[in-house]
Design a protein that fits this description.
Elements: H1 2-34, H2 38-69, H3 76-91, H4 105-127, H5 132-151, E1 158-160, E2 163-165, E3 173-174, H6 197-208, H7 213-240, H8 243-260, H9 265-288, E4 293-294, H10 301-314, H11 319-347, H12 357-361, H13 370-378, H14 380-398
Antiparallel strand pairs: 1-2, 3-4
Length: 430
Amino acid sequence: MKFDIEMLLKNDVRIVVSTFVGISFLFIIVAMILGLDFNGTVNTIQRIMFLSAVYAMVVLALNLQWGYAGIFNIGVAGFMLSGVYTMAIITGDPNGLIPGLGLPLPIGIVGGVLVSGLLGLLISIPTLKLKADYLAIVTIGFAEIIRYTANALTFKTFSIAGVEMGTGAGRGIHLPMNPIRGLYYIDPSNMGLGKTIVGEYIFGFFEIVQVQSSVVVSWTYAIVLIFIVGLFYVVTYRIGNSPFGRVLKAIREDELVANALGKNTDIYKMKVFAIGCGLMGLAGILWQGSYGYTNPTTFQPILTFYIFIALIIGGSGSNTGSVIGGVVFASLLFEGPNFVRRVIMHVFKFDKAPNSIIEAMIPISSLDFEPFISYSLANISSLRVVFLGLVLVYIIQNRPDGLLGDRKELAASIDISRRPVTETREGKEA
């Protein structure tokens, strides 16, 4: 264990920090090119840090299921939604437009995690005997059922045992105020007026150095998320290296052999599916909890595919790879294209973009690429999906083990693939 801890501190943390510092430096250069002021540059780095932390948490939870146990869960977005909406209902104002139970935020967070885990446990009972594609179809179908339920007018407001509550349907639902923002503001509807004593002293210092209070709040929340990513890492690391985790890896390698050795693989898969779904619910709560509002369209199936792409980039079966995949995806692949468009539009001046791809490609025959570039920049959000597909194909063909290489954790408690070198009494190597 001592060796594992030293490796974690000296290698894995160094890799993650170096990756993020390098990406941050790249975005600082971009911000300088765009002429952003200090607050704009700091806010850009904060958004990268925030999204990287969110994706790292969800990818770690997915790695627990797919990377460790080989469970192909395509319903990630649905379990995130269930956690967020449960928290919103538990903490909602009983007298609000969309009534809730009015309970404290910690109870809402715990309730959201438990409901997500319970839903994962319930769906695992009839479905985990399915394999690969069939399991994927069931889980994505279940996630869509959850999303359409939250979007249904029937559940906009409803009552259980005389207690009013609701999901808000397509209009969405309000979430509790960011607790970090609560240090500064008394009333979120009166932002900038109702300052607390703590806020006067803490935020007053940053106002002196001309840092906006909203930037300070966002940075503080992002830093908190970084620490929570560390907790996610420790939890998944300890699970993976426990006897329970070694059975999960054995199931991933060959479930028939694990069964033959006397392990009830169904129970193990049900447990890890519930744990992973609970962590996904918590990640969703921490993600949407800073916005104060959410709606069902946020949790469409493409969110699940984004998370899978991040896991494939980092390397399935590796916790460090999961974090690296989340950071690289969120910063370079998700946010990167928008910044590239802004840089190009800032440096070069283009005419109005054509209305269709046909109009953009016709001038290419005369070596005029400006309409095509202009059209591509105007539709960068749509083209990002195409770019992600190309990156995914390249990774699968050339780096199937992820950016960090073969880092998949073994099922055995020790690496038996290498025979240790010892010395005999005669001083010869054995």
